[in-house]
């Protein structure tokens, strides 16, 4: 096993250890999701934010790239794998086919990223991407991450048209652009989540919530409070 993969199992084991809990106990079990990012993140050229890998990258290229890591994570003790910030339908298809291989037996969710509020970052249709996830039996939820909050509600509605699986959302703090030269995010609009916005997302069909780039513990606290307040009135 290559050295960079040896660290994956210990990280999951450490996170599985019980930790002191303050406040009220959760009604739901804590699950550990092992994160798998896109091929573009490995390239480190900003292509994970545009989904353009070039003609030389094929379905088999992506499957071969991800296979060993996904196999290790499937046997690491994680409860599921989160395939995150998926930038195009080719990589979504690669993930789906990997999950159908005999050596990989673990539930997963797929989340996609967008920069225009209509399609995923490559320009591929969110309907086509979500349909790939929906067709995979081991995918238990589909959604959006690493996307401005203002785009989320529309995407929830779009995803709901092609799947009845739970919808997971964890947007960025606001609207931003990625500078490939400096390899830094440039924030244009700060959009902390409000209780009203979170309730709109839930009403639209989302059932799993979190935060991505730029979010803080305060963001997660606000989400938890909004969901708890709603639950207490039901």
UniProtKB/TrEMBL annotation:
EC number assigned by the record: 2.1.1.10
Class of this enzyme: transferase
UniProt xrefs under SUPFAM superfamilies: Homocysteine S-methyltransferase (SSF82282)
PANTHER family assigned: HOMOCYSTEINE S-METHYLTRANSFERASE 3, ZGC:172121
Requisite cofactors: Zn(2+)
Binding site for Zn(2+): 146, 212-213
GO molecular function annotations of the record: metal ion binding; S-adenosylmethionine-homocysteine S-methyltransferase activity
Occurrences of domain Hcy-binding (ranges): 1-227
BP terms from Gene Ontology: methionine biosynthetic process; methylation; S-methylmethionine cycle
Keywords, ordered alphabetically: Metal-binding, Methyltransferase, Transferase, Zinc
Keyword Nucleotide-binding included in the entry's annotation: no
Organism: Rosa chinensis (China rose)
InterPro entries: HCY_dom, HCY_dom_sf, Hcy_S-methyltransferase
NCBIfam families xref list: PRK09485.1
Taxonomic lineage: Eukaryota, Viridiplantae, Streptophyta, Embryophyta, Tracheophyta
UniProt protein name: Putative homocysteine S-methyltransferase
């Amino acid at each position: 096993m290559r050295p960079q993969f040896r660290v994956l199992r210990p990280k999951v084991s450490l996170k599985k250890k019980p930790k002191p809990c303050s406040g009220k106990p959760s009604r739901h079990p804590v699950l550990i999701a092992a994160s798998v990012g896109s091929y573009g993140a490995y390239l480190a050229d900003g292509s994970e934010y545009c989904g353009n890998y070039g003609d030389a990258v094929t379905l088999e290229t992506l499957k071969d790239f991800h296979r060993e890591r996904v196999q290790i994570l499937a046997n690491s003790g994680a409860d599921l794998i989160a395939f995150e910030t998926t930038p195009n339908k080719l990589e979504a298809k690669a993930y789906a086919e990997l999950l159908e291989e005999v050596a990989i037996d673990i539930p997963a969710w797929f989340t996609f990223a967008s920069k225009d509020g209509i399609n995923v970052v490559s320009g591929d249709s969110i309907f086509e991407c979500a349909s790939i996830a929906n067709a995979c039996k081991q995918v238990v939820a589909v959604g959006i991450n690493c996307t401005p909050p203002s785009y989320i509600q529309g995407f929830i509605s779009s995803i709901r048209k092609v799947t009845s699986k739970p919808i997971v959302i964890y947007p960025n703090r606001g609207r931003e652009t990625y500078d490939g030269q400096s390899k830094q995010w440039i924030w244009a609009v700060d959009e902390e989540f409000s209780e009203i916005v979170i309730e709109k997302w839930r009403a639209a069909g989302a059932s799993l919530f979190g935060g991505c780039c730029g979010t803080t513990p305060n963001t997660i606290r606000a989400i938890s409070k909004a969901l708890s307040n709603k639950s207490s009135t039901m």
